[in-house]
Write a structure and sequence with these properties.
The chain has helices at about 15-25, 55-75, 85-90, 100-115, 125-130, 140-150, 180-195, 280-305, 350-355, and strands spanning about 5, 10, 30-40, 45-50, 95, 155-160, 165, 200-205, 205-210, 215-220, 225-235, 240-245, 250, 255, 275-280, 310-315, 325, 335, 340-345. It is of the alpha+beta class. The protein has a nine-stranded mixed β-sheet, with helices on both faces. It has a five-stranded mixed β-sheet with strand order 2-1-10-11-18, with no helix packed on it. The chain starts with a strand and ends with a helix.
Length: about 350
């Protein structure tokens, strides 16, 4: 059974790369596995596909990479000429024509912004800039933070068929909370359409598995030690995303701050642990791992009520003191290696502790 290591923001598919190298020496007969690695959207992407023969597998891997490149050209705000960057730079009140693809992306983001009551909010480019999240980090002044907060919030974007408008200067959309999910979904679809019967995508902290694949074992890492696994999650299909601060963070005046910003306060969210989300849709997993981290375990658990299609593992503490709290749908799919695990809805005392 293939093994994937999962830390906060890091996944590795080294065993799959070995399978790829072996497949290159075989004739183009029978099932084949091909893995490709590329640097896209500011992080490492590994695409592994299985198909009925090597030519089909190669074509499917190429289709997946092309799909991700198209998403990068559309959504990456690291490029000034991407469609999203040009929207961010448009004048307040001006009608900006958008492609059907970008409109669909923004409507997906809008859906999860509304569903999470703003805990997931991609309209925080002004906050990302004022905290220098993409650089080394800095402490904004009170005036700077007030100005950035005034320009932040997805409510400043108005969507109409084929048209987007921003209503305030300084507003911008940060794709980091949903762009990887979009890329994973489109890459998986492209690979399947090109003939792959199994697709495994590892995109800098998020995995998507689609088609008729064998079961994968994903390591869940200690929040404070990404090289130490505390649990193993068995997954055959769907997407898994983890949010936390063990891999990334800001150091401001010698103090560690998380890189995930709370849209409500404008400040980095508290460093309480990690959350791992399992969902059928990579966009949902991407958006919700951010949102549930911002909410924290208590409010996150309350939000999850009535949403059985979303599976979650909250991890608090470290080492033997690690406390994992999971949704009941993961029972039998999680193996605990350190700390303790409680399934909510089955341990009333823990539920009461969360909800009081």
């Amino acid at each position: 059974m293939p093994h994937i290591s999962v830390a906060s923001g890091i996944l590795a598919l080294i065993p799959m790369m070995i399978v790829f190298m072996a497949s290159l020496t075989e004739a183009n007969q029978g099932p084949a596995s091909v893995a490709r690695r590329a640097w896209v959207m500011g992080t490492c992407l590994t695409v592994t596909v299985e198909a009925n023969n090597r030519e089909t597998a190669m074509n499917a891997s190429e289709a997946a990479l092309r799909a991700v490149t198209e998403v990068e050209n559309r959504l990456s705000t690291w490029f000034d000429d991407s469609e999203l960057s040009r929207l961010n730079s448009s004048a307040p009140g001006a009608a900006f024509p958008i492609s059907p693809e970008l409109e669909a992306d923004l409507r997906d983001a809008d859906h999860w912004w509304q569903e999470t009551r703003g805990a997931f909010d991609p309209g925080i480019a002004s906050l990302v800039e004022v905290w220098d999240v993409r650089g080394g980090g800095r402490e904004p002044s009170t005036v700077e933070l007030q100005s950035a907060r005034a320009a932040a919030g997805f409510e400043h974007l108005m969507l109409q068929p084929g048209i987007a408008k921003v209503d305030t200067a300084g507003f911008g959309i940060e794709e980091g909370g949903f762009g990887k999910g979009v890329a994973l979904r489109e890459a998986a679809d492209a690979a399947r359409e090109a003939g792959a019967y199994c697709v495994v995508l590892d995109f800098g902290g998020q995995v998507a598995i689609g088609g008729n694949c064998q079961e994968f074992r994903l390591d869940i890492a200690d929040p404070d030690r990404r090289d130490a696994r505390i649990a193993v999650l068995n997954v055959r299909t769907g997407s898994v995303a983890t949010s936390g601060n063990s891999e990334r963070g800001l150091v401001v005046d010698g103090e560690f701050r998380g890189h995930l910003l709370d849209p409500q306060t404008g400040y980095p969210a508290p460093d309480w642990g990690t959350v791992t989300v399992v969902a059928s849709d990579p966009v949902a997993a991407d958006c919700l791992s951010t949102a549930l981290y911002i909410m924290g375990p208590k409010a996150g658990w309350e939000w999850l009520q009535g949403r059985p299609e979303i599976e979650v593992v909250f991890v608090e503490g470290s080492g033997e003191d690690t406390r994992m709290t999971a949704t009941p749908g993961l029972e039998g799919r999680l193996e605990v290696l350190a700390g303790n695990l409680i399934y909510l809805q089955q341990k009333q005392a823990r539920i009461e502790e969360f909800t009081q």
